[in-house]
């Protein structure tokens, strides 16, 4: 792997795209200080130019190298959760190219905890702009095979380190002005974020990041992380009733459930805990999307704080797929 990491760092230095593992999902990386290289990310993903990227930083990088007016809350969060699945949105340093931030005055920064990502960042020696390694709006990749299936030879190199640990994207907290705001939930609980800053959990506000004064951040559109096959969220009882009513057509329906297995030709049963469910979610959605089915029905998950990030991803996947009825 050392030789692969050195080769990947050289590719990045040459302005190429490199996909690499993080503890959240696989990222599609380019030199964050090279606008021409970053432009290749947008072209490969078919990503709108005003949709910003997250910059991954080498371990030990001072926030002040990439941001200005860094508030104490940002230092506390970085000390508590970096390296790890947390992105901080801060006012950008003048050196950060416009293309990385979507033309905004803010930039998303994180130090990942995956050993391969850290080794790549150390070998490269600077920030790597890296959104998830998938086409824009589609299901994020949690293994190298997903990346290869998505991009083929469009990516110069893919570092393969097996499945991602968490399976969903990083938590995003906005610290660019005023009170901290949770813009995208992730593996780090809202209560833990608040505690690290000495705040009550309800001080972080709602998730979503779509308010008029919120900076644009990845994964904040109502429809995102979506399969091409229409996806519908259904409570367990409703899902079972619709399956019975579907009759022979049930063979054209993929099922993703968690409470108890469902007997069906195309069914995926995920763990009944939020961390295990998140770890397997995108792989299950990709498999369901590739199956010979017309619909994907997903059993709704609990409406409790530990499931917040999973609920967020499922709601966006359903909205992005365009499904409105069974």
Describe this structure in words.
- This protein is of the alpha/beta class.
- The chain has 2 domains: 2-204, DHBP synthase, CATH 3.90.870.10; 231-321, no CATH class.
- It is built from 10 helices and 14 strands.
- The protein has helices at 2-13, 35-45, 72-81, 98-101, 115-124, 144-151, 190-197, 236-246, 274-290, 308-321; strands at 18-20, 27-31, 54-56, 67-68, 86-92, 106-110, 128-129, 157-158, 171-174, 181-184, 231-234, 253-257, 267-269, 295-299.
- The strands form 2 sheets. Strands 1, 2, 3, 4, 5, 6, 7, 8, 9 and 10 form a 10-stranded mixed sheet that branches.
- Strand 1 (18-20) and strand 2 (27-31) form a beta hairpin.
- Helix 1 packs across helix 5.
- It is globular and about 60 Å long.
- The N and C termini lie far apart (47 Å).
Order of helices and strands: HEEHEEHEHEHEHEEEHEHEEHEH
Unreliable residue runs: none
Strand proportion:
15-25%
Q: What is the mean predicted local confidence, pLDDT?
A: 93
Q: Sketch the major β-sheet.
A: 10 strands, mixed
Topology, number of strands: 14
The general outline is: globular
Number of helices in the DSSP assignment: 10
Helix content: 25-40%
The value of Rg in angstroms is: 20 Å
Number of domains: 2
**Structural class estimated from helices and strands:** alpha/beta
CATH topology of the largest domain: DHBP synthase
CATH class of the largest domain: Alpha Beta
Helices and strands, with pairings:
Layout: H1 2-13, E1 18-20, E2 27-31, H2 35-45, E3 54-56, E4 67-68, H3 72-81, E5 86-92, H4 98-101, E6 106-110, H5 115-124, E7 128-129, H6 144-151, E8 157-158, E9 171-174, E10 181-184, H7 190-197, E11 231-234, H8 236-246, E12 253-257, E13 267-269, H9 274-290, E14 295-299, H10 308-321
Helix pairs in contact: 1-5
């Amino acid at each position: 792997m050392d030789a692969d990491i050195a080769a990947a760092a050289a590719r990045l230095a040459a302005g190429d795209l490199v996909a690499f593992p993080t503890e959240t999902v696989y990222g599609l990386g380019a030199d964050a200080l090279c606008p021409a290289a970053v432009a290749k990310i947008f072209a490969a993903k078919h990503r709108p130019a005003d949709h910003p990227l997250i910059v991954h930083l080498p371990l030990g990088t001072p926030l002040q190298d990439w941001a200005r007016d860094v508030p104490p809350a940002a230092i506390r969060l970085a000390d508590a959760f970096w390296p790890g699945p947390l992105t901080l949105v801060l006012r950008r340093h003048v050196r950060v190219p416009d293309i990385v931030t979507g033309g905004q005055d803010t930039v998303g920064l994180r130090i990942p905890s995956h050993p391969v990502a850290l080794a790549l960042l150390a070998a490269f020696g600077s920030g790597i702009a890296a959104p998830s390694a998938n086409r824009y709006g589609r299901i994020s990749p949690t293994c190298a095979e997903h990346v290869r299936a998505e991009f083929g030879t469009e990516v110069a190199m893919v570092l393969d380190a097996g499945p991602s640990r968490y399976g969903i994207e990083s938590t995003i907290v906005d610290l660019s002005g005023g009170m901290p705001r949770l813009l995208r939930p992730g593996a780090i609980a809202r209560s833990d974020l608040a505690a690290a800053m000495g705040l009550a959990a309800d001080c972080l506000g709602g998730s979503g990041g779509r308010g008029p004064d919120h900076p644009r951040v990845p994964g904040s559109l109502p429809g995102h992380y979506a399969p091409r096959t229409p996806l519908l969220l259904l409570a367990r009882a409703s899902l079972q009733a619709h399956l019975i009513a579907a009759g022979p057509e049930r063979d054209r329906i993929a099922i993703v459930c968690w409470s108890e297995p469902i007997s069906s030709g195309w069914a995926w049963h995920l763990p009944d805990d939020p961390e295990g469910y998140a770890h397997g979610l995108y792989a299950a959605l990709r498999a369901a999307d590739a199956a010979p089915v017309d619909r994907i029905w997903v059993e709704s998950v609990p409406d409790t704080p530990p499931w917040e990030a999973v609920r967020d991803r499922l709601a966006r996947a359903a909205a992005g797929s365009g499904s409105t009825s069974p």
